[in-house]
Automatic annotation (TrEMBL):
Molecular-function GO term, any one: metal ion binding
Residues in Globin domain copies: 117-254
Source superkingdom: Bacteria
A GO biological-process term: cellular response to nitrosative stress
Source organism (scientific name): Mastigocoleus testarum BC008
Name the record gives this protein: Flavohemoprotein
InterPro entries in the record: Cupin_2 (IPR013096), Globin (IPR000971), Globin-like_sf (IPR009050), Globin/Proto (IPR012292), RmlC-like_jellyroll (IPR014710), RmlC_Cupin_sf (IPR011051)
Family (UniProt): In the C-terminal section; belongs to the flavoprotein pyridine nucleotide cytochrome reductase family.
Keyword field contains Heme: yes
Pfam families in the cross-refs: Cupin_2, Globin
Length: 264
């Protein structure tokens, strides 16, 4: 049974203990709050009830509130007593059995890898910037490196500075950004480019946390060079698009660092 208590647009508070109720014939499930990303549900299982083995496509957390139960997690048994907190990555096989009346909060949240891609609106906006990026791409990436080396001089040592001076690296990055804008809805077409770049990144010891630095520098450079054409809508779309591209590189580079075969 699902019973939505609240779908608020502002904060709300509730005392979980007052919300708990048990039924001998069914598991009580109360959705406290739900949006596009996350669902917070109170689950109450009377003594002896169980939720059979299943998986979720979303990441989950379980926080036991009262009673006693057993969570079976990929064959391992975990005792659920008040205060126990468990994180379950998406697709983990699990089951729950109540040895006494048992209540717990279940949070389900979307995770980035499950995202099939960016929204259609973002695709359309990013694609519409492709001609502009073809024309002014190198100006943008030249500015991007200027911003990045100024704000984060420590990354300079990873780069071949002669390729900066002769403009070849900004040109390569501009090509990659333009390629992404043109094929954002068909990442398969970028596979060989992603491979080349990812291998170069691994050779130069690029780390996942450095993607935020490149991202903020690139977005700022777009604003600086494109001026009025870098509307809020364009910047929002590119922020989302960059995050997805960064995820693709980070994932592939992690695989290369640990020497596993290619997956895109
Ligand atoms: C989505 C973001 C990124 C894109 C699209 C991108 C793109 C590229 C491209 C096209 C190349 C040239 C590859 C080749 O030689 O054929 C390259 C090289 C390189 N990238 Fe990235 N990159 C990104 C993020 C980063 C990050 C986060 C870092 C970390 C600081 C980084 C550091 C480097 C370095 C050090 C090289 C080698 C440049 C050299 O030899 O001077 N990149 N990247």
């Amino acid at each position: 049974m699902t019973n939505t208590i609240n779908s608020p647009s502002t904060y709300f508070t509730t005392t979980l203990k007052d919300t708990i109720e048990y039924s001998q014939t069914k598991t009580i499930s109360k959705v406290l709050f739900k949006d596009n990303n996350t669902q917070y549900t109170l689950l109450c299982l009377a003594k002896g009830r169980e939720i059979k083995e299943h998986t979720s496509t979303r990441n989950a957390t379980i926080t036991a509130i009262e009673g006693l139960g057993i969570l079976t997690l990929e064959g391992r048994e975990i005792i659920l007593t008040p205060g126990v907190f468990i994180f379950l990555p998406a697709n983990t096989i699990h089951a729950v059995r109540a040895t006494e009346n048992l209540s717990f909060m279940l949070t389900l949240s979307e995770h980035l890898q499950a995202k099939s891609g960016v929204s259609q609106k973002t695709v359309d906006i990013v694609k519409s910037t492709a001609p502009m990026l073809k024309k002014r791409g190198k100006q943008i990436t030249t500015r991007m490196y200027e911003i990045m080396f100024h704000n984060h001089p420590e990354v300079k040592k990873q780069f071949d500075m002669s390729a900066q001076a002769n403009g070849s690296q900004p040109a390569k990055l501009a090509n990659a950004v333009y390629g992404y804008a043109s094929h954002i809805d068909n990442l398969e077409a970028l596979k060989s480019t992603v491979e080349t770049i990812a291998h170069r990144h691994v050779k130069t010891h690029v780390q996942p946390e450095q993607y935020a630095i490149v991202g903020e520098s690139l977005l700022q450079a777009m604003k600086d060079v494109l001026g009025d054409a870098a509307t809020d809508e364009v910047m929002t779309a590119w922020t989302e698009a960059y995050e997805i591209l960064a995820e693709v590189f980070i994932k592939r580079e992690q695989q290369i660092y640990s020497s596993s075969p290619a997956v895109l």
